[in-house]
Amino acid sequence: MRETPESLVVDPGLDETIKKLTPEKIQTVVEHVLTKENAARLKVYSDTCVHCGLCAEACQTYISRDKDPYYSPVAKVKNTLWELVKNKGRVPPESIRDMSRIVFTECAVCRRCSMYCPFGIDIAYLLLVVRRICSLLGVVPAYLQDTTNSHAATMNQMWVQQDEWIDTLQWQEEEAQAEIPSCRIPLEKEGAEVMYSVIAPEPKILAQLLGNISQIMTVAGIDWTMPATDGWDNSNMAMYSGDFEVMGRVERLHWETAARLKVKKVVMGECGHAFRGAVYDGPRWLGWKFPPIPMVHAIEFYYDLLKSGRIKVREKYKKSVTVQDPCNTVRGRGLGNKLRYVVNELCESFIDVDPRLEHNYCCMAGGGTINCGPPWKRSRMVSNRVKAEQIEATGADVVITPCHNCHSGIEDIVGFYKLKKHVKFISEIMVEVMEIPDSLKA
Amino acid sequence: MYDFSRGPLVWIAFGIFLIGSIYRIVSVIKLAKKDKVVLPYMTWKYGLRSILHWITPFGARNMRLRPAFTVMTYLFHLSLLLVPIFTLGHAILWRESWGIDLWALPNLLSKLMTFIVIIAGVIFVLRRIADPAVRFVTSAGDIVLVILVLAPFVTGLMAYYQLAAYQTILIIHIWTGALWLAIIPFTRIAHMLYFALTRAYMGCEFGYVRHSKDW
Question: Helix (H, G, I), strand (E, B), or coil: what is residue A214?
């Protein structure tokens, strides 16, 4: 494997853990994952790929790094999975380190490449198989593994304790009441129409978003609730670190909590991978074809509120805006046009990106890449120059990102490439521009 | 030699091709049952929708991004499939051997399509060498495969133009053709068998499950 600035990055999650590996252990784990945990897709994808390289153009890391062949999707598969298959798992620990770096920090499993492969090979899935192997071997970037450990111990991503959770909700309820006195964040309300789901970064570092949703729910007159117990966070980094056992526990608790509260549906806040975990990966691991209770993503929820007139706009947002299409809700749920409807309803001047919708470039923060932490930030930034250029070309002042990963990822890019843009969630703009009925005003 | 080549050899090649293909497809479907998240999510509607988009020229964005390559790939695959079945010489063989009356390609078109296969094949090889992204994932096997695929077309042309001893070149033509047919299920040419399966699965993942599109 060739030496790059990235292969010199120090990360104890990779450097220290490989010291405990033996060739036998590597071989056992690789064989287990390749033969016991995976079947048709792995086999057919391996046999079908004609090494045509047509997936290269899909990948932001390849484009951003001046078309360096080392970063094309198929090259990442070649340097990881093909090596493991070819050698039947007989690879040295140092190779596992390199593979872990590639699959965790140089691919955001956004699945754009699947749309460029003539055979529709799910390349992201192939790299997730390698992540699974790395996880079982314990070779995972330290920051990412910490989020998984947090899930395992506290059932949320950021070590939030139950008292902190409830306390934060009550604090934000009061904040919302400063705007609209009747605002509530109803806890444990059995039989409510909606359970609202958030991810741990909201109570931990972006608490104002909880106040925002309280205002939106109040104005729209939604019968809603949030759990006071664990099970409120399904952000699920374990899904991306390859620890599917913990991933399954998180999703099961989340759905059991919704079932306990007897809600009609779950509204997922502006987060993409939580949506993916709850709707796709979680149910499949648990042996359910689809989620037991319908889940609606915030984009769709806001669309319904605006379309039905439950939220009316007092005065549209003035600054020019553009959007980031999150992979898990646009490519992963087809919500791209609804996102544009919402943005156009809320904002005066919307400038679309190119390419757009399902074909928009990845934020290079999702899929666990941003959770790999500071050691890998520079690499992520270099890997997404094309995103900076794309956003800059719109000339918009604000980038709307209805996903936590996209939000943080774009903020990083704005800072790194000095773009002079602001990054906002939809809810931040919505509370600013929505009409508050006189009956709700103090 | 010629009699063996025209008779049993072709039978053997067809046999290997058919039995091999059935074996590969059946074993994949069996494996798909083991891979529990595949079959429950597949529907005809979204499977066919995806296949249709990807067999239509310029039906996907990646095809529109590289128009010349798209046109060449289409003509290559189309010619590759049609010429061996419908070229005049072969149409006669179909009738003589099995009494099947097939429509035959006009001679000129047949020749043109054969040239297209050969030229496109050569360009594929050159692309493998010239484009760094493709070169990085190319192995010797990929080049050998193109040579194997082109061989019956080159020898077919040589026989047509009688560029060498007719009998000899004809035998080589039959052998390379037979080899080509027999290796389909066991090499990367198996993408011919798997295309519909992988495409349909991804079409359903994007369409049926994720309410999205994959082109």
Answer: helix
In three-state secondary structure terms, A153 is helix
CATH of A312-433, one of 3.40.50, 1.10.150, 3.40.5, 3.30.310: 3.40.50
From chain B, the residues in CB contact with A44 under 8 A are 28, 31, 194, 197-198
* DSSP-derived secondary structure letter, A221: T
Both tokens of A18, joined, read 């490989």
Which of B212, B213, B214, B215 is the best residue to mutate to test the A interface, defined by the most A CB atoms within 10 Å of its own CB? B212
Q: What is the largest CA-CA distance in chain B?
A: 60
The ipTM (two decimal places) reads: 0.93
Position A380 scores a pLDDT of 97
Which domains, ranges and CATH numbers included, belong to chain B?
A: 2-209 (1.20.950)
From the CA of B82, how many Å to the nearest CA of chain A? 21
CATH 1.10.1060 domain residues, chain A: 5-140
Q: Is A26 exposed, middle or buried (0-12, 13-18, 19+ CB in 10 A)?
A: buried
Half-sphere exposure of A286 (CA within 13 A, CB side): 24
pLDDT of A172: 97
Residue B146 to residues A92, B122, B130, B189, Cα–Cα distance (Å) = 34, 8, 16, 10
- List the pLDDT tens digit at each of the 215 positions of chain B: 777 877 889 889 999 999 999 999 999 999 999 888 899 999 999 999 999 999 999 999 999 999 999 999 999 999 999 999 998 888 888 888 888 888 889 999 999 999 999 999 999 999 999 999 999 999 999 999 999 999 999 999 999 898 888 889 999 999 999 999 999 999 999 999 999 999 999 999 999 999 999 99
Chain B: residue whose CA lies nearest to A55: B62
- Among all chains, which residue has been given the structure tokens 């991804």? B202
Q: How far is B53 from chain A (nearest CA, A)?
A: 10
Burial state string for A107-137 with b = 16 or more CB within 10 A and e = fewer than 16: bbbbbbbbbbbbbbbbbbbbbbbbbbbbbbb
Nearest by CB to A74, which of B38, B131, B137?
B137
pLDDT tens sequence across A222-254: 999 999 999 999 889 999 999 999 999 999 999
DSSP chain B: -HHHIIIIIHHHHHHHHHHHHHHHHHHHHHHHHHSTTSGGG--HHHHHHHHHHHHSTT-SHHHHHSHHHHHHHHHHHHHHHHHHHHSHHHHHHHHHHH--------HHHHHHHHHHHHHHHHHHHHHHHH-HHHHTT--HHHHHHHHHHHHHHHHHHHHHTT-S-HHHHHHHHHHHHHHHHHHGGGSGGGHHHHHHHHHHHHHHIIIIITS----
Cα dist. A334→A329, A340, A400, B209 in Å? Answer: 6, 12, 17, 10
User: For domain A5-140, which architecture applies?
Assistant: Orthogonal Bundle (1.10)
